[in-house]
Structure formats: C-alpha cells, structure tokens
Amino acid sequence: MHPLQCVLRMQRCQRWGPLASVSWVLLRTCRAHSGLPSTACSSPERQQEDGVWKDFSSRLATGPTFQHFLRNASVPQEKPSSEVDDPPPYLTVDELSGRQRKVYLETYGCQMNVNDTEIAWSILQKSGYLRTSNLQEADVILLVTCSIREKAEQTIWNRLQQLKVLKSKRLRSRVPLKIGILGCMAERLKEEILNREKMVDILAGPDAYRDLPRLLAVAKSGQQAANVLLSLDETYADVMPVQMSPSATSAFVSIMRGCDNMCSYCIVPFTRGRERSRPVASILEEVRKLSEQGLKEVTLLGQNVNSFRDTSEVQFNNAVSTNLSRGFSSNYKTKQGGLRFAHLLDQVSRIDPEMRIRFTSPHPKDFPDEVLQLIHERDNICKQIHLPAQSGSSRVLEAMRRGYSREAYVELVHHIRESIPGVSLSSDFIAGFCGETEEDHFQTVSLLQEVQYNMGFLFAYSMRQKTRAYHRLKDDIPEEVKLRRLEELITVFREEATKANKAFVGCTQLVLVEGLSKRSATDLCGRNDGNLKVIFPDAEMEDVTNSGLRVRAQPGDYVLVKVGVLSCF
Ligand code: 5AD
Ligand code: SF4
After folding, report:
1. 259 CB less than 6 Å from ligand 2?
2. CA of 266 to the centre of ligand 1 (A)
3. Which ligand approaches the C-alpha of residue 258 most closely?
4. Which residues, by range, are in coiled-coil regions (predicted)?
5. Is the preceding peptide bond at 361 cis, omega within 30 degrees of 0?
6. How far is CA 13 from the centre of its chain?
C-alpha cells in the first residue's frame, strides 16, 4: 500500500550562520549515555536550531530513568530457543524440526503483515529452519497475504502461477519445494485455495503461525495441511519478531490484533478475528530490547491501536468506562476496564527518550483528551496522526457504519489541531462505496479541501464477501465511475497536501536517517517527525555532539535539515 506523499528536499547553496558550508547538522546520539551534549553557539541563525537542540536535551534531562521503566515492567517467561513445543502424537521432535531447510518469505499488504512475517520467521527459526532471500535455493516458499481488496488477492493468484512453474521444474535430486499461503487470504478462502491450487501445500491463518512447524512437517510427508482457526487470545506476546533487515533503524511492535468495529465494507474482522490486546508488560519488554539494539523508532501496530485495552492484569479491570471522541459511537457494547492506550503510550515513550514513537492504524472514535495531551507533551511521540475518514459524506459514513458524521469528524480534526499544534494528519478514503452519489463524492472532495491532509491512502471500493455491505447493500457504482472519482480525489489530495506541506519549506526539521535514497546514490533519505520523507546530500557535515567533528551521517543518526524544495506525488 503506497501513500500519496510529499518529499522534502534540502535547500542548497544557502548561507546559514555558522553552518555556512553545510545547511544540515548531525546529531549523533549515543547508546552508552543517556544525554546529548550541549551546544556552545549563540549566533541569531543558530538560535533557531538551538531551540530544537535545547528542546531535545531538556527532554533527556527530565526523562524517566531505566529503573523507572523496570519498576513498571514484569518480564514474560520466554522459552529458550532450543526448546521445541511438544510434538503431536503422530510426529516426532525430529520430524517437527526444520533440519536447516531454507525458507523464502514474501510479504504483501499492510504493516501488520510485515510484523506477522517477522513473527512467522521467529517461530520457524527456533524450529531449525534457515532463511534465504534467493527464491531459487528455497525449500519452502511462504506468501504472507492480504485480502482487503480484490486486486490484492489477484496479485497472489498470479504469483502462484509463477511459483507453480518453479515447483514443477524442481530437480528430482533436490528436496521437493513446499509452498504455503499465510495470513488473511488463507483465512478468507480456506480450503478453496487448496482445491483450486493443488500445488499449495500449507495454509496458515493469522492466528496459526505457532503451528507452522507442524504444518510443514505434515506437508513434508506429501499431504496438504491447514490451520485457519481464529483465536480469542493469541497475541504472540512471547514471540520476539526477527527483523528482516538487520540495519533497520525502526521496527514495528504489534500491540493488538483483530477488529470488533465491523465497518460494513471491511473484511478484516473476518480474516483477523476478534479484537484482543497484548499485555502491556510484554510490549514494554520488546520495546526495551529494540532500544538496547540501537533502534531509533518504533511503530505500535494494530487494526485499531487506540482501542487498546489490556485486561490481563486483574487489578485494572475495574468499571472505568470508555471515553469516546465527542460525537462518535461504536458498533459494539461499550467495553470497560483494562489498561488503555494512553497508559501504554505513556509507558512506551518513557523507555528511551531518543526513540521516536509512532502508532498505526487508529480509529477516530478513540482519541480521548488524555491521548492527545500525551502526544502534545511527550517529545518523542511523533506529532503525526492517521485519522481514517473513508468518506466526507455523513450519508455514506452511516452506510459504512463508521459511527460518526462528517461534522463530528471535522470537529475532531479541529480539536486535534488545537491540542497538538503543528500535527501532521493523514487519512484513508474509499471512492465509489455502495450508493455513493456525485453529491456524496463532492462531499469527500470538499473534506479533502477542508482538512488539507499531509499524507493519504486512497482506494476504489472493492466488494468483499461476508461483509455487511455484501449482504445488505448493492455494489452499484460502475468500475469506471469508481476509478474516475478516485482520480479526482487523488488530484485534489495532491493539491491540498502541497499547500499543507509548503509550511515546511524554509524550516529546519529533525530527520531520522534511514539510509541511501532509492533515487540517487549521492543522497541520503530519512523522515521528519510528521513522517514525511526528507532527501539530502550524503556529504560530510558537522557533528555537534562531537565538538564539530566532520562526519558522514549514518542510518539511525538524527540530522537537522533545512528544507528547500517540496515535491508531491
Ligand atoms: N475496498 C476498498 N478499500 C478498502 N479498505 C478497507 N476495505 C476496503 C474495501 N473493501 C481501505 C480502507 C481502510 C484501508 C486499510 O483500506 O480505507 O482504512
Ligand atoms: Fe490486508 Fe487487512 Fe489483512 Fe492487513 S489486515 S493484510 S490490510 S486484509
């Protein structure tokens, strides 16, 4: 899923006080100590940076200690890596073992799937499998799939045709190639996949990854094997995901799974099951480990992250009722008790003041003032909120069962902007939902103009079986009309995002360096607090944490970049 986004580029050839030769400065942060050195520059031009700088150092000075965190976390028991689950009666421990067979994993769909891939790999690695990034040398190919729109599933069917050829060409002298479908598509289509594509050996739904070693052992004996059971409590709390890229500066941390919202267009409640939250202690433990590994950013993940509710600790299960955003309602009975998102966000952000915290995807109904205040106050929580609107028409929103009107949504946007000055906003929109008129479409266009999002994800409606819309509404907007409306939304979105993001031009942004720019080997790329991509030259710069030493920025460094040019696409 690619966002419609803008890219900020460095302003070149600009004199900028003591940094005349460079208009970017490196803030290299150090894991061994918990503070950044102060700067000794006071020219007027430098004062602007000093603001950012002091802000950053004062946060570190007043931040919580490591002991503070430890007091709040209890560590879940993890199995030692050599320990294998008891085998079922028909398999020996030896048969369950991967015996160094090589697995190739391919991920489609959302960030949850990226995280699920890391979980699946963590489980297989413990079971004795090796990982390969070379399709040709794989003994097992696993596709982690998405069902959200018809197109996502079609991509997998096409990929299976290619893999079929690979499987049939496999030399008899080699171990037979096994192919597995994991995730949402396995859950949605179940045995239909096994019947339609005989070359698929295993199916594992989103709650069945612990069963992968057994499924693969069964498949090795020549049978097809499937586990698509959904769970009420599986959160993989004790599985530490193994990151795909060891040099990554940021990681996803799953905090809850499933969805109870039942928006009428959405397949997710059927593919990922009921909403359940991971215990706070295990989330904190994972974030702490990531911080110790030197990661500089975590994104808390879930289908409705801000509906988080950890009910695992009995003492917090009192009858505190839920505060919904003003003008919002939910499709389910109000839930009570448990540790809520504001508590989790507070605790996570205290672990490492140098670590940026993001979260996605939230639902607009769950933005009580505690959450907004925390985002405003806590410097390492990014001032960036994804606020999926889906439509600008109250009539369509009702048909979608979103639980809010256009007016309530707009009021929430104003409230968020008042509570968090400078916040970046992004959204999801669906064009051509059942019964959407030109007037409804115009309402969505006008919402884009009214809000001026910084980033967006726009889709044409795709009817999904099992959903409420499938059973009760008519998919009556012709495909060409859906596409025309989508194009119109994209055009308006770009115009408005360009206006919104122009505010960054001429400003200094604190950028977390990710690595080389994909488009140019001489540029680096990173992201600002609002999650916009920033491109700047890979050249020597002043290291202000190391008495002005001249260095090249590395992934994981913070760099101050003065923005010159904006391009949106
Ligand atoms: N058709 C088109 N877009 C959809 N989305 C969810 N279900 C559908 C569907 N059936 C979009 C929504 C959601 C995003 C993840 O995908 O905008 O927020
Ligand atoms: Fe696709 Fe939704 Fe499943 Fe993510 S949760 S993989 S977006 S269907």
Report:
1. no
2. 6
3. 2
4. none
5. yes
6. 36
